[in-house]
C-alpha cells in the first residue's frame, strides 16, 4: 500500500500544481477479495484514518479500475449483525448486493464489504491528456471527500455514514445520498459528550443572537434546551463551565 496526495492544478496560478487530500492506494492484479482475518489485520483495517482506494490492473487493456472503500465503515461501526466485531472482513471489488451500503454478514461471523462497480476506469492514454486528468481528479476527489467526512465523524464519535444510493463509473458524484446512524452500547460515553457539546454550542449561539432567539422556533425551544442542558451538566459537570448559569 502506498500513501498518495491528489495533485491538482492551481486555477489562480497557471502552470503550478498544488497538493490535495491524502489517501492510500492498494493495487491488485485481479478482483479477488482483499481479506483481513488475523487479529492484527482486523485491528489495522478497522482503525483506518485515511480513505483507501483499491486499484485493480487490467494489463491487456492498459487500464486500471479504481474502487472506493467508503462503506468499510458501515461494517466496522455496526459489527457482525450489530452484535460483535466480525471475525473476518473481505473487501470485494466488483460485487454488489441488495442493500445500497453493501455489507453482508455471513453466518460464520465474517463480513463481506461489497465495493460495487469501480468509481472510475483510467486508461494509459488518459494519463497524458490534460482534460482527462482533470476529470479523473474531480471524480476521485469527490469520493475521497465523502470517505474522509465519514472517517472524521467516526473519530469524533459521530456514528453515522453517508454514501451514494447510486453512481456511474467515471462520472462525478450526484445524488441522492443515503445515510445510516449506528447505535452501539460502547458508544454511550462519546454520544452523551457530543450531545452536551452540541447543545452547549447551540445555547451560546442563541445567546449571541437575541433578536433571532425571540422568534420561532427558537423562542419555544429555548426553555427545552435549558432543561436539557441542566440534565447534561448533571451527567458531565465540566459542561457547566461553558454554558454558564442556566437559572438566569
List keywords for this structure.
7 helices; 248 residues; 4-stranded mixed β-sheet; alpha+beta
Describe this protein's structure.
With 248 residues, the protein is α+β, with helices and mostly antiparallel strands. It folds into two domains: 2-183, no CATH class; 188-243. It has helices at 39-46, 72-78, 130-155, 188-207, 210-213, 218-235, 240-243, and strands spanning 2-5, 8-9, 17-18, 22-28, 34-36, 52-58, 63-68, 88-93, 103-105, 110-116, 120-123, 160-164, 177-181. It has a five-stranded mixed beta sheet, with helices on one face. A four-stranded mixed beta sheet has the order 5-8-10-9. A two-stranded antiparallel ribbon has the order 2-3. Strand 6 (52-58) and strand 7 (63-68) form a beta hairpin. The longest helix is centred in the middle third of the chain and has 26 residues, at 130-155. The termini are far apart. The model has no long low-confidence stretch (mean pLDDT 91).
- Rg: 22 Å
* Quaternary structure state of the chains depicted: single chain
Low-confidence regions: none
First-last Cα distance: 57 Å
Percent of sequence in beta strands: 15-25%
Q: What is the count of structural domains? A: 2
Structural class: alpha+beta
Order of helix and strand elements from N to C terminus: EEEEEHEEHEEEEHEEHHHH
- What does the overall shape look like? globular
Q: Please bin the fraction of helical residues.
A: 25-40%
Largest beta-sheet characterization: 5 strands, mixed
Give the total of beta strands: 13
Q: Largest sheet, order of strands side by side?
A: 1-4-6-7-11
Amino acid at each position: 500500500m502506498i500513501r498518495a496526495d491528489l495533485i491538482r492544478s492551481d486555477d489562480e496560478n497557471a502552470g503550478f500544481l498544488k497538493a490535495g487530500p491524502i489517501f492510500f492506494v492498494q493495487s491488485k492484479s485481479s478482483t479477488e477479495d482483499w481479506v483481513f482475518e488475523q487479529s492484527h489485520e482486523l485491528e489495522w483495517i478497522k482503525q483506518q484514518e485515511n480513505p483507501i482506494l483499491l486499484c485493480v490492473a487490467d494489463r491487456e487493456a492498459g487500464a486500471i479500475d479504481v474502487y472506493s472503500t467508503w462503506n468499510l465503515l458501515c461494517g466496522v461501526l455496526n459489527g457482525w449483525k450489530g452484535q460483535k466485531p466480525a471475525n473476518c472482513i473481505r473487501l470485494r471489488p466488483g460485487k454488489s448486493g441488495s442493500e445500497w451500503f453493501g455489507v453482508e454478514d455471513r453466518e460464520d461471523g465474517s463480513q463481506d464489504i461489497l465495493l460495487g462497480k469501480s468509481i472510475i476506469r483510467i486508461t494509459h492514454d488518459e494519463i497524458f491528456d490534460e482534460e482527462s486528468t482533470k476529470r479523473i481528479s474531480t471524480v476521485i476527489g469527490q469520493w475521497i471527500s465523502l470517505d474522509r467526512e465519514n472517517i472524521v465523524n467516526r473519530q469524533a464519535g459521530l456514528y453515522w455514514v453517508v454514501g451514494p444510493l447510486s453512481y456511474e463509473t467515471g462520472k462525478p458524484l450526484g445524488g441522492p445520498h443515503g445515510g445510516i446512524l449506528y447505535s452501539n452500547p460502547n458508544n454511550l460515553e462519546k454520544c452523551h459528550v457530543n450531545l452536551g457539546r452540541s447543545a452547549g454550542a447551540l445555547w451560546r449561539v442563541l445567546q449571541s443572537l437575541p433578536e433571532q432567539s425571540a422568534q420561532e422556533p427558537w423562542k419555544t425551544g429555548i426553555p427545552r434546551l435549558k432543561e436539557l442542558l441542566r440534565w447534561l451538566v448533571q451527567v458531565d459537570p465540566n459542561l457547566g463551565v461553558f454554558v454558564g448559569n442556566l437559572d438566569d
